[in-house]
Design goal:
The protein contains one helix and no strands. By secondary structure, the chain is mainly alpha-helical. The longest helix is centred in the middle third of the chain and has 132 residues, at 3-134. The termini are far apart. Pfam families: DUF948. The chain crosses the membrane at residues 6-27. Keywords: Membrane, Transmembrane, Transmembrane helix.
Length: 135
């Protein structure tokens, strides 16, 4: 055997070893891809079930919201009515306050004037009569 033949034989053996290593790698890669494909199939079926359950849950929630919606509308209407009642009570309070001030003013000035003036006039006549009797 010559040196060239030995070199060719070594190259051939190296090539065979490379092919064997690549073959083993490809076999393992194929098995891994098969396992990954099965896992993805299982995950996709589980995701479909979750989505179906989510759709059922969403439909149920939608029905319950439709049931509760009138109650929320009633609460909103009640809040508006309470707000309007509050405004009316405030206006009434302001009106009563103004009226009370007017009545108080009347009682201070008008009642004193109405009752005080005749009383003062009566007192003046009484003094005048008393002075006339003493003379």
């Amino acid at each position: 055997m010559s040196g060239g033949q030995i070199a060719g034989l070594i190259a051939a053996l190296a090539f065979v070893a490379l092919v064997v290593v690549i073959s083993i790698f490809l076999v393992r890669l194929t098995k891994s891809l098969g396992i990954i494909t099965n896992d993805i199939d299982q995950i996709s079926h589980e995701v479909e079930e979750v989505l179906a359950n989510a759709n059922v849950l969403l439909a149920d929630v939608d029905e319950k919201v439709k049931t509760v919606d009138p109650a929320f509308q009633a609460v909103a209407d009640l809040g508006l009515s309470v707000s309007e009642l509050n405004g009316a009570a405030k206006n009434l309070t302001n009106h009563v306050g103004k009226t009370t001030r007017n009545v108080r003013g009347f009682s201070r000035l008008g009642l004193v004037t109405m009752l005080g003036k005749p009383a003062w006039n009566s007192f003046k006549r009484h003094r005048a009569n008393k002075k006339n009797k003493t003379k």
